[in-house]
Specification:
With 203 residues, the chain is an alpha/beta fold. The protein has six helices and eight strands, in the order H-E-H-H-E-E-E-E-E-H-E-H-E-H. Helix 5 links the parallel strand 7 and strand 8 (179-183). The longest helix is centred in the first third of the chain and has 25 residues, at 2-26.
């Protein structure tokens, strides 16, 4: 049963990502237009868009009434919510936590830093990170209920794998999204590598 539920969740997330990608590429669209581009059935698409609307990932912006020549009920037009955070990055560094929030177009819409002493424990660093994220959300009026993924960088060689699992569990429970935890230097190297076509990168 758990395997079936897990597969269903993965399929549903894939459908959500497809819908968001279509809106990111084409802008404002009706459900019928999204269905034509995604290949999803009307029933499935209705469920997906309904959930995305309730979570604030997308919004109803208008209808196609001005485009319609005949009679019939105008179709709602949907678009990405520019205030909805889709990706969250957190760097739990030695002396500060840094957080960034990106929208569905992969543009950074909020960022901030909170300093702390180098002797700060990992649980305290996590609390500082969550407090920073909450503050950014309030100040920028952002919604984080539709996050697609969370990346958390931690200092090395500590914490150990068990501690990283604890970090992952905290953020996964808080935001209900997939969480990737890794060494923050590794993340920084990957970010640098992503800006070049080189096969070998030294960071």
């Amino acid at each position: 049963m758990s395997v079936t539920v897990g597969v269903h969740a993965l399929v549903r997330r894939a459908h959500e990502e497809r819908v968001l990608a279509i809106l990111r590429e084409h802008g404002t669209l009706s459900r019928a237009q999204i269905a034509a581009r995604s290949g999803l059935s009307r029933t499935t698409l209705s469920e997906i868009t309904g959930d995305l609307l309730s979570r604030g990932a997308i919004v109803k912006v208008t209808t196609d009434a001005h485009q319609r020549a005949g009679s019939g009920r105008p179709a709602e037009l949907l678009a990405l919510d520019p205030r909805s955070g889709q990706f969250l990055g957190v760097d739990l560094g030695h002396t500060r936590v840094r957080a960034v929030v990106a929208d569905a177009a992969h543009e950074i819409i909020a960022s901030g830093v909170t300093p702390y002493p180098a002797t700060t424990s990992l649980p305290a660093r996590i609390r500082a990170g969550l407090a920073l994220i909450d503050r950014l959300g309030r100040e920028r009026g952002l919604g984080l209920s539709a996050l697609q993924a969370v990346g958390v960088g931690v200092t090395g060689p500590y914490p150990a794998d068990t501690a990283r699992a604890d970090v992952s569990a905290v953020f996964r429970e808080r935001f209900g999204a997939p969480v990737l935890v890794d060494n923050n230097t590794r993340f920084a190297a990957l970010a640098e590598a992503g800006t070049t076509a080189a096969h070998d990168v030294l960071y």
